[in-house]
Amino acid sequence: MTAYLVIARPDLIAARAEWLGALRNEKRLAPLTLEAYERDTRQFLQFLTGHCGGAPGLADIADLRPADLRAFLAWRRREGVGARSLGRGLAGIRSLLRHLERRGLVSAAGAGALRAPKQPRSLPRPLRADEARRLTTADAQLAEEPWIAARDAAVMALLYGCGLRISEALGLTGGDFGTPPPASLRITGKGGKQRLVPVLPVVAEAVATYRRLCPYGLDDDRPLFRGVRGGPLAAAIVQRAMRRMRTALDLPDDATPHALRHSFATHLLGRGGDLRTIQELLGHASLSTTQIYTDVDTERLLEVYGKAHPRA
């Protein structure tokens, strides 16, 4: 890790260095996360230098109050820092204080009592129905090998037609899609939560076409979707195919495999689908997670209204 000038007393510099070492060697934090935590706590110590009237030591952070941390967040906000970065910065400071609290050096109560900045709610960006349908056809695929084009179309059809996550689609086995094709799939999603998802005839047809053209034996206990050399198909390959189609078909930058799952939910809701049923189809543990699609649909309606109404 790059060495930076840290304005603090030797006891606090040493304690912070020990904490960073523990994050790196014991908790195995990702390098980018570790770098962010180092930067955030260094900026916090810089703030404390002015806040405390001199380089801070362990004694200065022994009993930090929520007001002290709110002053730091306000200082960073005045510099134009957004809510996500502020929240991450607060998480780093809490981690440092809790590490020191376990060693009996400080109290982390003040940091624990402070609420993190409210994060902006980013809405999923679904594709238009015609764009989504086009992506699920073999003709739209750019692969030269017919079986690979059929494979990619079948994966896209499962994402849009069944609302699957890409990991769920690639986790299917040959036994999940036999002959005749199933009327529904039993999907195991996040947290081991299982759900039944109906299989539309167009989806079953896309998978059947792929099975017919695939040069590898699709045994019941082997992955349904295969790579060029016969191994399990990787998500990165599907994402790469989507990026190529995005350029060729002039689709928006947020046209990703996961956007097809968003499109599945948004289009169902727009056609009168029940929110609770959509929750079950998506495998969401909480209805509040699914309710974000009501905001998407409202946003779309207002956009159409603004473009179409003569008095808009």
Could you explain the architecture of this structure?
- With 312 residues, the protein is mainly alpha-helical.
- It has helices at residues 10-25, 31-52, 66-78, 83-102, 109-113, 129-135, 146-162, 166-170, 201-213, 235-248, 257-270, 275-282, 287-290, 292-308; strands at 184-188, 194-198.
- It has a two-stranded antiparallel ribbon with strand order 1-2.
- Strand 1 (184-188) and strand 2 form a beta hairpin.
- Helix 2 (31-52) crosses helix 4 and helix 7 (146-162) packs across helix 11 (257-270).
- The longest helix is centred in the N-terminal third of the chain and has 22 residues, at 31-52.
- The chain is elongated, with a radius of gyration of 26 Å.
Oligomer: single chain
What general outline do the C-alpha atoms trace?
elongated
Structural class assignment? mainly alpha
- Major β-sheet annotation: 2 strands, antiparallel
Helical amount among residues, as a percent range? 55-70%
Report, as a whole number of angstroms, the end-to-end distance.
55 Å
Catalogue the unreliable spans.
none
Q: Tell me the strand percentage band.
A: under 5%
Mean pLDDT: 84
The number of helices is 14
The helix-strand sequence is: HHHHHHHHEEHHHHHH
Kindly state the number of beta strands: 2
Major β-sheet strand ordering: 1-2
Please give the radius of gyration in angstroms. 26 Å
